[in-house]
Amino acid sequence: KNQVEQSPQSLIILEGKNCTLQCNYTVSPFSNLRWYKQDTGRGPVSLTIMTFSENTKSNGRYTATLDADTKQSSLHITASQLSDSASYICVVRPGSSASKIIFGSGTRLSIRP
Amino acid sequence: EAQVTQNPRYLITVTGKKLTVTCSQNMNHEYMSWYRQDPGLGLRQIYYSMNVEVTDKGDVPEGYKVSRKEKRNFPLILESPSPNQTSLYFCASNRDREREQFFGPGTRLTVL
Description:
The complex is a heterodimer. By secondary structure, chain A is mainly beta. Helices cover about 0% and strands about 60% of the residues of chain A. In chain A, strands 2, 4, 5, 9, 10 and 11 form a 6-stranded mixed sheet that branches. In chain A, strands 1-3-8-7-6 form a 5-stranded antiparallel sheet, with no helix packed on it. Chain B is mostly beta strands. In chain B, the strands form 2 sheets. In chain B, strands 2, 4, 5, 6, 9, 10 and 11 form a 7-stranded mixed sheet that branches.
């Protein structure tokens, strides 16, 4: 069964610190993996996308990595800011055109001043 | 400004009273979807549409209807809402299957 699991469920860190969020998936075949940021009460917004052949992608202070062999991705946030407080959702698109995209349940990140 | 709009943003209603949540996008996207988001469960797809007059069920379609008569609009219809449909609903659109989804601001629905 295609699944996407994220860890931790929630995380609290101090402003200025770095953190890493994890995403493990069992989707096969695999087309691409996206990380979305969802601010409280708003819709998700795409941060990065990676295909099978890519192993790292950056967007400002956000860096996503992908290991297609172990089916793991991580999102690293550098020098966190209060505005990084949000939920981060990992989304995997299967390679089969008949299969729907699969959402992880998200990691809730809180940045404390 | 490219965007997906939803209305209403907040709605409190009673069991059995039919309601419609509208969704509109101005990006000429082919694909549109409806999701519900519940604590601990993440986003779950209700229905999606690949083009005008082409719709299909997602993972949790029971109790919902949709229509796609125009490319820009994709309303979600609850014919007889029940309390278990209390949730946060998102509409999304994308240019094609591989492209990024753009999400609306969400509609928080409470069914009493």
